[in-house]
Amino acid sequence: MVMTDIPTKIVYKRPEVLDPRVTHYCPGCTHGVAHRLVAEVLEEMGEVGNTIGVASVGCSVFAYNYFNVDFVEAAHGRAPAMATGIKRLLPERIVFTYQGDGDLASIGMGEIVGAASRGELLTVIFINNTNYGMTGGQMAPTTLPGQVTTSSPTGRDVSRQGHPIQTAELLATLEGAAYVVRRSLHNVREVRKAKKAIRTAFETQKHKLGFALVELLSTCPTNWHLTAAESRDWVEERMIPYYPLGDYKVSPAVAELQI
Amino acid sequence: MAKELIKGNTAVAEAALRAGLEAYFGYPITPQTELLEHLSLRMPELGRVFVQAESELGAINMVYGAACTGKRVMTSSSSPGVSLMMEGLSYIAGTEVPAVFIDVVRGGPGLGNIAPSQSDYNQIVHGGGHGDYHVIVLAPASVQEAVDLTGLAFDLAEKYRSLVCIMLDGSLGQMMEPAEIPPMQPLKTEIPDWAVRGTDGGEKRILTSINLDPPDQEQLNYRLMTRWQEIEANEVRYKGYYLEDAEFVVVGFGTAGRVSLSAVRAAREKGVKVGLLRPITLAPFPKAVLDDLAEKVAGFLVVEMNAGQMLEDVRLVVRGRKPVEFFGRMGGVVPFPDEVLTEIERLVAGPLTTEGHPRDRWLERMAEVIG
After folding, report:
1. What pLDDT digit, counting tens, does each position of A41-74 carry?
2. Which chain B positions have a beta carbon within 8 Å of A50's beta carbon?
3. Which of A4, A219, B107, B346 has the fewest CB atoms in 10 Å of its CB?
4. Measuring CA to CA, which residue among A252, A214, A231, A256 is closest to residue A124?
5. Calpha distance B83→A177 (Å, rounded)
6. Per-residue pLDDT tens for B86-123?
């Protein structure tokens, strides 16, 4: 048998900015996908050494272990305030927060509205998986009507427990917000769109155009009590009808960005 | 530099700015607001950071983030606002980043009122936020002293990677008196290694207050406590008046200390051998001098604008060796010197006791005044 040299080309590898360790995320959870997209974007933009991340409280509390960039860890919901403090003192650095739905849309609603309305030059990656994952799947502000969680055991009753918050739509009403969109991570096509949105959100900051947020519909197989594949279907069938994907705010200056 | 007639809040704001303050984050609340207002004009004028936050929660967490860059940062508030900041203060302590905050204390609990008080002593000196940590607490008694302590606050914060609070009674924040503000200092140019700034290709830095493994958290707790021992050994500050030959000693800080000084002087004119110990650092508390006095004098009178919060720290040091009596006004009422003089005369006249609790005796006496 004759061995011949077959030219090889690397078409897919771990971004160097992602630490080569096993994450603590559950199998089938899309946090890993979101991390990777952020990592790829920072590398492609050449901003890895120029970036400071702000981790939040929730499943992504240890995000700082997975990115090889300077990181701080905020109190629950306060990441946008902490990021404001950093960005105002280091305006040439890229500062991003990575927050879940309980963190951002419940306890941290004041801080995210404040940051967006001031037009803070921040990029916010907002993971919406309709529950408090880390504490074991309690009802979140994003939990769908009728959805069973450990604190809505008979299904979310909107007459008693209120209605889910559509965060992207809400923040898009603020003048300081330059780029607010919702994407999903439940299939390859949407993941690719999500990456483009994340890139735009970081470019919005780099060009000092205003506050940018990408809401990412994400899976939580463990607390949804579904398989990974079923979870992806659940996003499509249950979440997207309530949380339509789309661009909720793209300022004229952001629309003109050439990426 | 000449002295100028200036309000306490404004003077502290200008002193902080001249000490190299690079970022201020705050929220309006009386009787602190002039501090925020002054900096809202002066900081942008100098190209420095001023943000009026969405809440005190927002403000203290902006300070937290800003402190992680290693620069001189601060916030200010008043009692109910400081209550809201306790979350962030605990996180700042747990992350070991330096920050200064100013509490212009008003009457409480609850909304209380906007009159001068010292009822945040326990909240500031003995905790507030969760977890084992200490805050260095400075308590000025005049506008000039507040100015002088402001520069010191930043130095101490950086030296010990600690929180430093200037507890400014509402009276001092609102009062105008002549003070000299030091000249403008250049901004810090050296950024400590631990501060985040982007890796620029080097090792990444992580600033966090989470240590999920209990032995790791215990190590942090141990480091904070041994650092506090160092602070207790090196940073105690107080002022003594007429202590050399004193048979009785009044202990009071801030405005209460200043009012007491007038009473002590009046008593001296009447030939009463009474002195005043005015703690400037409420934490670390001036234990050694008080311990020394407990061996020499016949009795103590603690005067505060609260229901006897520092009183317990005094009693811990005196340990029943000598009688300790208490006089306080609460809820934003400022004591008059003649009230304190009456209390001094009562102490001197006796009979003295180390039995019971001084607060109970004081409440009984106050029944006629308040009840």
Report:
1. 999 999 999 999 999 999 999 999 999 999 999 9
2. 198, 200
3. A4
4. A214
5. 31
6. 999 999 999 999 999 999 999 999 999 999 999 999 99
